[in-house]
Model the fold of this input.
Amino acid sequence: MLKLYYDLHIHSCLSPCGNDDMLPSNIVGMAALKGLDVIALTDHNSCKNCQAVMELAKEYGITAIAGMELTTSEEVHVVCLFPSLEKAMAFDSFIHKKLPQIKNDEKIFGKQQICDKDDTITGTEEFLLINATEINFDEVFDVVSEFGGIMIPAHIDKSANSLISNLGFIPPDSRFACAEVKHTGFLDKLTKQHGYLKNCKIISDSDAHYIENINEPVHYIYSETKEIPDILNALKQKSDSDEF
Amino acid sequence: MKLSEFIKKSNFEIVSEGDNTDTELSKVFCCDLLSIVMSKNPANSVWITVMGNMNSVAVCVLTEGGCIVLAEDISPDEVMLQKAKQQGVTVLKSSLPVFDTGLIAHNILNA
Done:
C-alpha cells in the first residue's frame, strides 16, 4: 500500500470566495512544493477549472482529482470526487441546470474565473456559484454515484454549511462512507455524539481559498496506487491503518 | 426608526458597527437559507439569522439590508467580521432564539 499525503478540498479562482491568486499553477505548484501526493479541486458547484489543474498536476507528477463542493438545497456542503474529468464535467453540466439563475455580482461576491493550465483566463461563470442547488442532501449519494463519484460531507464540525450544523444530525439512512472534519481534535467528541461516524473513513482537508492555506503534508491515506479510482476506493473503506 | 436608535433600544451586542447607522429601517426579516434571503430580504430590513459566515455579509449588501442580527448567541467567524468591516455592514448579536430576537426587534420598530 502507498502512503499518500493529500488535500482533497481546494478552491480555485472560480469560486467567488476563492482568492484570485488561486490559479492552476499556484495551486499545483504549492501542492508540489509542500510535498502532497494527491489533491482535489473542489470549487463551489462547478468543475470547470478541473481540467487545467489536472493537466498541470500530471506535469508535476502529482495526482489531481476532479471534484466539486456541492451545495445541497439545505445549504449543506458536500465534497464530491470523480474518477475522471469526463465524469466530473458531466456532473458539472447536470448541476449547472440545478443552480438558481441568479447572476453573480463580482463586486459583492468576487470573481468566478475559468482558466487554462497556463493561468490564462478563458471565461467567467455567469451564475452565482455559492447558491443552494435543487439537490437535497438525501439525494446526493445516488446522484453522485450515477457519475461514478463519491460524496464526502464537508467540514462536518463547522458551525455553518455543514451536515451537522444545518440538518442538526446525521440522517440514519445515510450511505456516505467518508466524512471530512476541519479540526481533528474534536473527533472523539463528535463520534460519541454521532455514532454513524464510527464506521466512516475520516479525512481532514484545508478547504483552502488562499494559496497559503493548502495543507502541509500531514494527513495521509493508504491506497493501492496513485491512480484516481484506487484513491476513491481507499476513501470508501475504513481500515485499521487509517490516520483517524 | 434609524438604525442608530434601534441599536440603542434593542440592547443587542454590537459586533460591528457599519457606516449606515442613519438608515431608516423597514421591517424584520427572519431566514437562514441564504438562497431565500437573497431573493426575499427587504431593503433596510433587520435581518435575523444564525448564519455567522462571510456570505451573510455579502447577501446583506446585495439585498441592501439594514443590519444583520445573529441570534442564538452565534458568533461571527473571523472572515465575516473582516468582511462586515470592509463593507460597512452593521452586525449585532443576541443570545435569544430567532423568534424572540425578531419579536423584540419588531416591537421596537413598531412602538
Remarks:
- The mean pLDDT of chain A is 96.
